[in-house]
Amino acid sequence: MQDPLRTPTAGLLAGLLFTLAVIGVYAAYTLRAVGRMRAMQTSIVERNRLASLQLIRIQNDLHALGLSLRDMLDARDGYPLAAWRPALGRMQENLEQAIGREAELSAGWRPREQTVYLRTSFTDFWRTVDGVFAQAGEATMREGIRETLQPRQEALTALVARLLVENNERDSLAAAEAQKIYRDIERNAYGLLAVSIALLLVTGLGLIRMNRQVFGRVATLAQERRELAQQLIATQESTFRSISRDLHDEFGQILTAVGALLRRAGRHTSPGSAFEGEVQEVSVVVQGALEKIRSLSQSLQPVILEEQGLLAAVGWHLKNFERHTGIAVEARLPETMIELPAEKSIHVYRILQEALNNVARHAEVTRAAVELDVTGGELRMIVSDSGVGIGAEARAGVGLSAMQERAELLGGLLTVGAGSKGGTMVTLVWKGVSES
């Protein structure tokens, strides 16, 4: 006996859990990478861009301051230097606002010392401006502008330019980091795809292998069941044949002998006596029992099937069925039929027997119909009634299973369903009859 097939449930469940774990890990990694990307874009790239805008604003203000200092030295418009102080105050206010805003935006990635140095440099510059304008005399003030303020303005411009360069470098680093994150996500996506394909291949091949084993086992069981059914049917026919022979040879001869003795005894009785009546009554009973035994023997092993063929056996059985059940059978039989092997014909005969027995037991009708035809190498037999019919939830019994087995042994097809006028219709189709 073969070992029971292992169920693929455990392997499939393990594969499913592993797949879910891989997907979960990849999803967590992707969400983390996306979070890093979002944080970098919001906290670094965007803030760095705004800080660069503030540095450009500071650079523009310093450029305007440089132009103002140059105009002060030229003195072409005839304005006294003290008249420039309010304009310089407005520039100072704008620069302090821009420096403060830039310090807020650059906090977190720029060293605090650079921010303090930038703010201190501007504070010293404006303190120097106040010192220059506090001096007496236009010539002294112009000398202070030329010797002190212009160099410091240029130094502040250079400092802001260096900060802009650092911001641009930081933008490049952020772009490189973003590309790295994108490459990691893409690489992991391909990895997940490869793992998923591998899992699908392993799972698919495992299922194919398991299905082949299952179908192979089913085919083996079907063959074993078919062989067992053949053996059971052969044993059944052998048993029927043995019982039929015993009934005919043993009980039939005994009853025949008893009938002969009763007839002999009847010849020695007085005519009209009570004993003669009793002997005749017993003779009738014995003759009835003998007829029943002969009928039963013929049903178990229809000798007419072997001697005269299937058509004659079917006609005899229909008459016998009508006589015993009282159900009229409308028979549509061919006038002649090709000779079929007895070992094949017996299956058709047994299917007819069981179908009519089901009509008698379950249909609750007084009429039935049997159609038998053999044309073009195909035998078709239909047994129908207009009775209560077979329910949709009815389970196949032993009789129906036996009919199905016999149909398979013939190589035919048996269908059981509702008839065109209600009731039940049993149809046997057996092709290749002429080749049997």
Descriptive key words:
436 residues; alpha+beta; Heat Shock Protein 90; five-stranded mixed beta sheet; 9 helices; 5 strands; rod-shaped
Descriptive notes:
With 436 residues, this protein is of the alpha+beta class. It has helices at 9-74, 85-106, 112-133, 138-267, 274-300, 303-308, 310-325, 342-363, 398-410, and strands at residues 328-332, 367-375, 378-385, 413-418, 424-431. The chain has two domains: 9-207; 302-435, 2-Layer Sandwich (Heat Shock Protein 90). Helix 1 (9-74) packs antiparallel against helix 2 (85-106), helix 3 (112-133) runs antiparallel to helix 4 (138-267) and helix 4 runs antiparallel to helix 5. It is rod-shaped, with a radius of gyration of 56 Å. The two termini are 34 Å apart. The mean pLDDT is 80.
> How much strand?
5-15%
Helix proportion range: over 70%
Main beta sheet strand tally, sense and closure:
5 strands, mixed
Mean pLDDT: 80
The secondary-structure element order is HHHHHHHEHEEHEE
- Low-confidence stretches are none
Biggest sheet, spatial arrangement of strands: 1-2-3-5-4
Query: How many runs of DSSP E, i.e. beta strands?
Result: 5
Classification by helices and strands: alpha+beta
The structural domain count equals: 2
